[in-house]
Design a protein that fits this description.
It contains 23 helices and 16 strands. By secondary structure, it is an alpha/beta fold. Helix 6 packs across helix 16, helix 7 packs across helix 10 and helix 20 runs parallel beside helix 23.
Length: 584
């Protein structure tokens, strides 16, 4: 069916070019409409819909239904439409509904078999994409916000890979600054035997520094390991503690390495590895911050006022100009961000995506403006952003806010330990990033159709069960490859085949729109189509030829489910048990 759709779109493009050429020549339209099909909201209306007649009617000064009649006549003369289309019908104000011949729908089974795990993938490109996500400072465990970033970022990387991009995953963090200083001091106090609640522990509410001391149990773990003179190794560093509670610099380096190691354990539990860890400090030691600032000054994009250096960010759509360098000589936080993205661009990444919380929305205009102000040739709109809203965790009908491990928030590892990696990944990708999400731990543990990840995985396991029984009856993989697909004519079979055929389009659209949640939506729809088909048709029947054809359809569905689940980093189990009260 993929081939059929491509041939039909090419034929439609040819006809549209001919119909609109007069209008293009007269300057009434810039170009012919793009050849495209839509999916009708109701299956009874057809397999594809075309809105080109309504798009062209104004420029050609024709009634859209009249134009649709002309368009249909020309389409019917195209060989591709003769081969693959059963009927063309005008509906409403000028829609053209397209009904495919059975052979066009049935072809998708063979196409899935031929491509296997690469079904839906595009050829390799020469372009590279960099996705930066999680990017947590090493001051504590990864929280549920980082978990959502991890799910979004990893799925987006997988999506780009299906579209032929060379993809790199990057983790950026600050290994210096006020937060790291607070971490070191908090750990030193614990190493000296001081703990939260003691009279000497900083608790003065009027002292800004005391508000930032870290009280979680993990600080004591760091202090104890430091006093034992342990060596800790993270993906990007290794350090051995001096054991001297007065050695604040050693404590700082050890605490950073310890928490980076802990974050690595979180990421490993999530099944995620990064290609590169980028240190904010390297932007200063390498002179990249100073270079970016010097370029902005040389290009006349800054000015001094009140002892501070300002960026003329209003020239780039910001609501007001922004301070770059304060009167004390320190840079505001967006300046190293500008230098960091100049670095990304110079590394050859033509597409960069940052996944951050919605509290970073205000930085977008000033970072993009700063990049333009450097004058290094970075295109407008670079980088792209995916901003996500907060996650609320519910357990036992109540919101969970406290983690013993972290002291004040639920961690990524908490979620995985309470449920599973699959549940965390699927749940956190199952909604648009810019919507708030409630992670219901109790729901994630249910083994029934209320649980969306179970619903999808059970569809895969159900297929595996039927295919195993098919093998027992002599229908192995070799026999399925030669099945007579023309026997697949039931309405639920057509619906399932159309859903399989939509997978490549969905992948391309989700990648273009930076919308990995579309994959989760697709999986739920595909599982629904599978469950409906299984309930309506007897797969293992008395007719061997029909049985082989239906098993072939199930095998193709299993392959596409595996492919889509892999994009989300979710497993595809071969067997599952439902809750006893849900047994059918």
């Amino acid at each position: 069916m993929i081939q059929a759709k491509q041939e039909l779109l090419a034929a439609l493009g040819t006809v549209l070019q001919g119909l609109s050429q007069e209008a293009v020549d007269a300057g009434l339209v810039a170009a012919a409409p793009v050849a495209a099909f839509e999916t009708p909201k109701q299956a009874s209306h057809g397999d594809f819909a075309c809105t080109a007649a309504m798009q062209l009617s104004k420029a050609l000064k024709k009634n859209p239904r009249e134009l649709a009649t002309t368009l249909i006549a020309q389409l019917q003369a195209q060989p591709a439409f003769e081969r693959w289309v059963d009927a063309l019908e005008i509906a409403g104000p000028g829609f053209i509904n397209i009904r495919l011949k059975p052979v066009a729908k049935q072809a998708v089974v063979s196409e899935v078999f031929a491509a296997a795990e690469r079904f839906g993938h595009q050829p390799r490109r020469d372009t590279s994409a960099l996705v930066e996500f999680v990017s947590a400072n090493p001051t504590g465990p990864l929280h549920v916000g980082h978990a959502r970033q991890a799910a979004l970022g990893d799925s987006l990387c997988q999506l780009f890979a299906t579209q032929g991009w060379n993809v790199s995953r990057e983790f950026y963090y600050n290994d210096a600054g006020v937060q790291i200083g607070t971490l070191a001091r908090s750990t030193q106090l614990r190493a000296q035997g001081v703990k939260p609640g003691d009279p000497v522990w900083p608790t003065d509410p009027e002292n800004p520094e005391s508000k930032n001391f870290y009280n979680g149990d993990y600080i004591q773990d760091i202090a104890d390991a430091f006093l034992r003179k342990e060596t800790v190794k993270a993906d990007d560093r290794e350090f051995t503690a001096s054991g001297d509670a007065e050695d604040l610099d050693s404590i700082r380096q050890f605490a950073v390495a310890f928490l980076r190691h802990e974050q690595d354990l979180d990421l490993q539990a999530f099944g995620l590895r990064f290609d590169n860890y980028f240190l904010e400090s390297s932007l200063y030691t390498g002179g990249q911050v100073e270079d970016a600032v010097a370029r902005m000054i040389a290009n006349g994009k800054t000015y001094e006022e009140g002892g501070a250096l300002w960026l003329r960010s209003t020239e780039y759509g910001d609501d007001k100009d922004r301070v770059m360098r304060k009167s004390d000589g320190t840079y505001t936080y967006f300046v190293p961000d500008v230098a960091y993205h100049v670095n990304k661009f110079k590394r050859g990444f033509s597409k960069c995506i940052n996944i951050q919380g919605t509290d970073h929305h205000g930085t977008i205009a000033r970072v993009r403006g700063g990049l333009q102000a450097t004058g290094v040739g970075i295109p407008e709109g670079f980088p792209d952003y995916v901003l996500h809203k907060m996650v609320t965790v519910m357990k036992g009908g109540e919101e969970v806010k406290i983690s013993k491990r972290a002291g004040s928030y639920v961690t990524l590892r908490d979620l995985i330990e309470w449920t599973s990696r699959d549940a965390v990944r699927f749940f956190l990708i199952s909604r648009k990033a810019d919507t708030e999400f409630v992670f219901d731990v109790d729901l994630a543990l249910k083994a029934n159709d209320e649980n969306p990840v179970f619903y999808v995985q059970y569809a895969h396991a159900r297929i595996c069960s039927v295919l195993r029984k098919g093998v027992e009856q002599g229908h192995d993989a070799a026999s399925l490859a030669g099945a007579d697909l023309s026997l697949l004519t039931a309405p639920t079979e057509y619906a399932l085949m159309l859903k399989l055929a939509d997978y490549p389009r969905m992948l391309a659209s989700a990648a273009q729109d930076l919308a990995p949640h579309d994959v989760a939506f697709y999986l739920r729809d595909l599982a629904g189509a599978l469950h409906s088909y299984y309930g309506a048709e007897r797969v293992l029947g008395d007719d061997p030829a029909l049985t082989r054809a239906r098993l072939a359809l199930l095998a193709a569905t299993r392959q596409v489910m595996r492919n889509a689940l892999a994009v989300l980093g979710v497993s595809a189990p071969d067997a599952m048990e439902r809750d006893s009260q849900e047994q059918q």
